[in-house]
Amino acid sequence: MSPALASDPRFTAVERTLKQYQYRPDALIEVLHVAQEAFGYLSDELMDHVARQLKVPLSRVYGVATFYHFFSLEPQGEHSCVVCTGTACYVKRSGEIVKRLEGEFGVKAGNTTADGKLTLSTVRCLGSCGLAPVVVLDGEIAGRNTPDSAAAAAHHLVAEGKPEKKPVAERPRRRGRRGGTP
Ligand code: FES
């Protein structure tokens, strides 16, 4: 582990959680959850450390980290915009919303803008199909969007500046596009 990571105050939360769960391998999701919250994403170094401490294969850590929607392996932007591309949303033009946002912000879905302001991503069904097409902006769900309304809301969000960090109340959510168990 690098000295930079070891001396990072955010790392304390990860260490505390490892201890709290007595380094049990079945605490993997809880530990990754805390690491994600503390750092905003799971770096290779962090995952390697967790794998060593819990004595689980690194492949297992990567498997869990890529299986759940909550986890990210890349640094995230100040703001997040997630567009649902599940069937109900797609038939109501969510594909056009994605294209519009990609064009407006100059970024492909799944990536962060060059200035680090916005991460644009897609997800397969958020379970709010009655509100289709659904867009989630910094964790706030907005329904019945159009390309215009989604673009306006995303611009408004970015113009607001850095959001307050909110506690995460939810457990990690499975990525809809994957099947099976990690
Ligand atoms: S398909 Fe978008 S919320 Fe279900």
UniProtKB/TrEMBL annotation:
Residues 157-182 are annotated as: Disordered. Keywords: 2Fe-2S, Homeobox, Iron, Iron-sulfur, Metal-binding. GO terms for molecular function: 2 iron, 2 sulfur cluster binding; DNA binding; metal ion binding; oxidoreductase activity. Gene3D superfamilies: Glutaredoxin, NADH-quinone oxidoreductase subunit E. [2Fe-2S] cluster binds at C84, C89, C125, C129. Binds 1 [2Fe-2S] cluster. Its cofactor is [2Fe-2S] cluster. Belongs to the complex I 24 kDa subunit family. This is Hydrogenase HoxE. It comes from Geobacter pickeringii.
